[in-house]
Design a protein that fits this description.
The complex is a heterodimer of chains A (about 350) and B (about 290). With about 350 residues, chain A is of the alpha/beta class. Chain A is about 50% helix and about 15% strand. Chain B is mainly α and about 290 residues long. Chain B folds into two domains: about 20-60; about 60-290, MetI-like (MetI-like fold, Orthogonal Bundle). In chain B, about 80% of the residues lie in helices and about 0% in strands. Classes of the chains: A alpha/beta (about 350), B mainly alpha (about 290).
């Protein structure tokens, strides 16, 4: 009996010592951090972004950290959070304290501005080019040799073609895909809405997997090898090509697509609370600098800077681009197409 | 004469036993088929995926493997997971023992209600568990304005992750102890009290030694779940790399970044932790039997 009791006591003591020492370690670490901050007055930024920008901001942050150190002598740490654009916007609304948001579409930032007034309603005028330092467009990724001979949007409606695109209800990228297809059909049928819906219906009846996010859709197409064509961001398509095999895929640029403008914004209330406004603004401004634009282009985003765009022109073929303004802005597009009972609910019948 | 009947009787009994056991046993072919099916099922659903994890983890070589598990973000994820475990598991041990103790050794009104509430986290989906904390402590939530004004971060930071983990792992210890303490009854405690021991003394010297193996078993299950919890933690994490990603979340991120080998490397580390936990569990089960 005594032995048993000892055993229990010993193990309890062990557990408490372990937990004490571990929590001790962690608090010691945070103390260290705090004193570091005071010594060098270092500053932390949180950039809440969407899925396909991981590689872009990985490279861009390194450059900005160096630049900020050179110019001000201050150390800046940039933390990144990535996820589906809508989900990330939601997290900021729920209290994720982002200094800057760099999301897939203006609608998600509008939501933050409206629901919690964390930033001005006219945030999109604060930086050049509608606060979008880089753009992208929607293209097709097909298997090598293009076995189904897919050249343009109407090829996606053929019966034997299997299409991969994410769900526009949850994915920002998918909404661009949907609107690009819609714009093509609009041009083809002279804006006859019944015919456009017919076209969209036959396109989405070919969708084999409707993932919830852009990255998930890419993984389905590339890794799980499902589908003949992936409708994707141009940058995402290039990334798949380079990361996962130039001999396996090809990029097809359709005759018409949409100018996708992923915007950036400083979250006013958070930077004012944390006192990080200056560095947050400089951070986003740096995206417009030559080097920032070059990094964007290297990561397959179309830069706004004409000279740099020209330098990378082989990577970015010219095509006819409609913009979100042709859909009367995001609020209108969202209401018409993606709200419950919108056109997407009309044309998409789950199989 | 007498002796021979005795022998006869004995052999009768023997025969009976033989026929009985034959009747209880299935034909050999059925036995083998059933065993084979069970083994094949296990191999296909458990062993094969486990092996796949390790093969994929080492696919790009040992260097990539070690680079993946020593990457700062991976180390941060491991550290965060351990911190969460170290806070959540002891708290649930204390709560579980208290809940089991009060539910089995005392009679009071609302006992069944409390029993049901203890089980609630098993029934509720982890996603909902996470959302509950967003609704409570998120900026739009009940305490949102106050927390923002006082600069206290709960969701999208360590406290939220710990809270979600505690919620999900809450029933493990209590659920393990309640049936055990119910069968043990209250007679030993009553004896101890009537001999003049205080309540705490009774608990420490009578109850605790009786339940220690059950308690350890519950702690191990609680620990395994705390390490592996994905759903609830994902909702409250905010996914800030190097800060609020636990190991399961880090694995998902690596996978989404096309770093399949790295993702599986971290996954293999978690599998090793799980296997280690199971071994400890078996040793405890074996020790508790032998004592």
């Amino acid at each position: 009996m005594k032995k048993k009791r000892n055993f229990v006591l010993q193990s309890l003591a062990l557990i408490s010592v372990l937990s004490l020492s571990l929590t001790g370690c962690s608090s010691a670490n945070s103390d260290e951090k705090a004193s570091d901050q005071e010594a060098k007055k270092s500053v932390e930024l949180l950039n809440v972004s969407y899925d396909p920008t991981r590689e872009l901001y990985d490279e861009f942050n390194k450059d900005f950290i160096k630049k900020w150190k050179d110019e001000t002598g201050q150390d800046v740490t940039i933390n990144q959070s990535h996820g589906g654009s809508g989900k990330q916007g939601r997290a900021v609304i729920d209290g994720l304290e982002a200094d800057v948001v760099t999301l897939a579409l203006a609608y998600d930032i509008d939501e933050i501005a409206q629901t919690r007034e964390l930033l001005n309603k006219d945030w999109q005028t604060e930086f050049d080019h509608n606060s979008t330092p880089y753009t992208s467009t929607i293209v097709f990724l097909v298997r090598k040799g293009n076995p189904k001979n897919i050249q343009d949007w109407d090829d996606l409606t053929k019966d034997d073609v299997s299409v991969i695109t994410p769900n526009p209800k949850t994915s920002g990228g998918a909404r661009w895909n949907y609107l690009a297809a819609w714009a093509y059909a609009g041009k083809l049928y002279n804006n006859d809405e019944t015919k456009i819906k017919e076209f969209m219906k036959s396109l989405y009846s070919n969708v084999e997997v409707l993932d919830s996010g852009a990255r998930g859709a890419t993984t389905t197409f590339v890794e799980r090898k499902i589908g003949d064509v992936l409708i994707a961001w141009e940058n995402e398509a290039y990334l798949s090509l380079n990361e996962l095999g130039k001999d396996e895929f090809e990029i097809i640029t359709p005759s018409l697509s949409i100018l996708a403008e992923p915007p950036v914004a400083v979250v006013d209330k958070i930077v004012d609370k944390k006192g990080t406004r200056e560095v947050a603004e400089a951070y986003l401004q740096h995206l417009y600098s030559e080097i920032g634009q070059e990094i964007a282009a290297k990561n397959y985003y179309r830069p706004r800077n004409e000279t740099i765009l020209a330098k990378y022109k082989e990577q970015f073929p010219q095509l006819e681009l409609v913009s979100i303004d042709d859909f009367d802005g995001w609020a209108q597009a969202q209401a018409t197409h993606f709200k419950d009972g919108g056109t997407f609910d009309e044309i998409y019948l789950p199989q | 004469m007498e002796q021979s009947t005795a022998i006869q009787q004995a052999s009768n009994v023997k025969n009976k036993a033989a026929t009985k056991s034959a009747a209880l046993q299935e034909p050999r072919i059925i036995r083998y088929t059933l065993t084979f099916i069970a083994l094949a099922f296990l191999a296909f659903f458990i062993v094969l995926p486990l092996v796949t994890i390790f093969i994929t983890a080492f696919q790009k070589g040992v260097d990539v493997y070690f680079a993946a598990i020593t990457h700062p973000d991976a180390l941060a994820a491991i550290k965060l997971t351990l911190i969460v475990v170290v806070i959540a598991v002891p708290l649930n041990a204390i709560f579980g023992v208290m809940a089991a103790w009060s539910l089995t050794k005392f009679n009071f009104k609302g006992k069944n209600l409390l029993l049901t509430i203890v089980d609630l986290p098993f029934a509720v989906s982890p996603v909902i568990a996470g959302l509950v904390f967003i609704l409570l402590f998120g900026s739009q939530g009940l305490f949102g304005d106050w927390l923002f004004a006082n600069d206290i971060k709960i969701v999208f930071a360590l406290p939220g992750i710990v809270l979600a983990t505690i919620f999900v792992t809450l029933p493990f210890v209590a659920r393990e102890l309640i049936p055990l303490m119910q069968t043990q009854g209250t007679s030993e405690e009553e004896a101890s009290i009537s001999l003049g021991a205080s309540g705490f003394k009774t608990f420490w010297y009578v109850t605790l030694p009786n339940i220690k193996w059950g308690l350890f078993y519950g702690l191990i299950l609680c620990n395994a779940r705390a390490i592996g919890e994905f759903g609830a933690v994902s909702v409250v994490s905010g996914h800030i790399r190097g800060m609020t990603n636990t190991m399961p979340l880090h694995i998902e991120i690596l996978y989404n970044e096309y770093q399949f080998s790295a993702a599986f490397a971290v996954a293999s580390l978690m599998s090793v932790m799980a296997i280690f936990t199971l071994v400890v569990k078996d040793i405890i089960a074996w020790k508790s039997k032998s004592s």
